[in-house]
Amino acid sequence: LFAGFDLPGRVRPQLVPPEELAQTPRPPLGPGGLFVCVRHTEGIFSCYMHLSSYRVHINDRVKAGDCLGAVGRSGTKSSGSHLHLEIHVKG
What is the pLDDT of residue 39? Predict the structure, then answer.
């Protein structure tokens, strides 16, 4: 569903293909940092935030066990490397 980075404030997150990530000039990142969101079924999706990198493109098909990215500390850096996982069900 999404692969890119969070921006500060109420600015829409920026979609960036993983191979362009290193070449894309990045402004200061918002709280979520680099992140990936996966749609599981209509109305249910999960988001993986604070990544150091990601390996998927928007609209890629993924399955259980696929590597989406690497854990990091992008975004608001108030702690060490960790994964922030969100599960959204119908909003």
Answer: 93
C-alpha span between 88 and 67 (Å, rounded): 20
pLDDT in tens, 69-80: 999 998 876 788
Q: Which residues of 19-32 are buried (b: 16+ CB within 10 A; e: fewer)?
A: eeeeeeeeeebbeb
Helix, strand and coil content of the chain, in percent to the nearest 5, comes to: 5, 40, 55
User: Contact at 8 Å (CB) between 1 and 39?
Assistant: yes
Q: Which residue has the tokens 């069900």?
A: 89
Q: Which residues pair with 47 in a beta bridge?
A: 37, 86
Give the integer Cα–Cα distance in Å for 51 and 32.
9
